[in-house]
Write a structure and sequence with these properties.
With about 325 residues, this protein is α/β, with parallel strands linked by helices. The chain has a 6-stranded antiparallel β-sheet with strand order 2-1-3-4-5-6. The chain is globular, with a radius of gyration of 20 Å.
């Protein structure tokens, strides 16, 4: 048996020995298991329900002998959003680092996880300044990574070879930022990186939601599209032998979030209201309420890539990326 990641059942982490004992009954017991995992044994492969962990079979599939034999669909007891987030973070906090920018998404995870944090940004960038301030407020152990332009160029050249949409400037700039998070996590001896992915789509975090004509439909589309983002992020993490762990995509959190009406997620000019309400009970209100730039902009990575494109004779970043991929 080979297990990459971790498996749980009803909030209890299973040890590799527990999993081996469970598999003696066949693949059926896996159907109600949560976690973030790619599990192989005999001629079988199983992957977690949301496909957080990359693998050769579809998300939630249990395949033996080349055919699907079961479907993983965990069904933990219902709980409040706050209970769901606390459980999701606790299940993932036995090791790893937190990808930290000082916003409400990563701030709440960091406040609950009690793990070292990593922030990435060009020297003097918004994210580095704010993450440093937030870490001091929360008394966090923060590692700050400030890549040079040359290091950004080298990282960009590597990520465009592995991400699904290498010529997309936004995708490439996000991937490059995450590259440095994953690299530092590995240097610190960790394979798991707790990150806030999924919070914007579940709770209404993007600025465009403020003027959406059909917020519920837009949120549903964006949640469905998140699988593409996960593939990008994990492809980058794999370059360093790490993976991104995503508490907000725990089945408990997803269910609790989707039970909240869209009009309560974005209202009065405030995005992610339910998440901020939970966060205010666990981290400083200034962090819970903070509006933050997208990582590629706040980190300064996007502007650096724009400069690299110009210096290499390209008016458009997309043209520059095509020369690298």
């Amino acid at each position: 048996m080979n297990l990459k990641g971790w498996i749980e059942h009803d909030g209890v982490r299973l040890s590799p020995a527990d999993v081996e004992r469970m598999l003696k009954e066949g693949p059926e017991p896996l159907k109600r298991c949560g976690g973030e995992f790619l599990l192989t044994w005999d001629d079988c492969t199983a992957r977690d329900a949301f496909g957080i962990m990359p693998g050769p079979v579809p998300p939630g599939a249990v395949c033996c002998g080349g055919r699907a034999v079961a479907r993983i669909a965990p069904d933990p007891p219902s709980c409040t959003l706050e209970e769901a987030i606390i459980t999701a973070v606790n299940l993932r906090s036995d090791e790893g680092v937190v990808a930290f920018s000082g916003g409400v998404d990563s701030g709440l995870i960091a406040g609950l996880a009690d793990l070292p944090c990593v922030a990435v940004g060009i020297e003097g960038s918004h994210d580095i300044i704010w993450a440093t301030k937030a870490a001091l407020m929360m008394e966090l152990d923060l590692e700050v990574v400030t890549p040079t332009e040359e290091e950004v160029a080298e990282a960009l050249a590597r990520v465009v070879r592995v991400i699904p949409d290498p010529a997309n400037p936004v995708e490439a700039s996000i991937a490059t930022t995450l590259f440095f998070v994953a690299a530092r996590a590995r240097e610190l001896g960790h394979t798991r990186i707790l990150a806030g992915q999924g919070a914007d789509e579940l709770f209404g975090g993007y600025a465009r939601y403020l003027s959406s004509p059909d917020l519920a439909a837009e949120l549903e589309r964006d949640v469905a599209d998140h699988e593409r983002q996960r593939a990008r992020d994990q492809a980058v993490a794999t370059l360093h032998g790490t993976y991104f762990s995503m508490p907000y995509l725990d089945i408990r959190v997803v269910r609790a979030a989707q039970a909240i009406p869209s009009g309560e997620k974005v209202c009065g000019g405030v995005r992610k209201r339910p998440l901020r309400a939970v966060a205010e009970r666990h981290i400083p209100a200034e962090i819970a309420r903070a509006e933050k730039k997208a990582m590629q902009y706040g980190s300064g990575i996007w502007r650096t890539i724009q400069g690299l494109a110009r210096r290499n004779g390209h008016r458009r970043v997309a043209e520059y990326l095509e020369t690298l991929s």
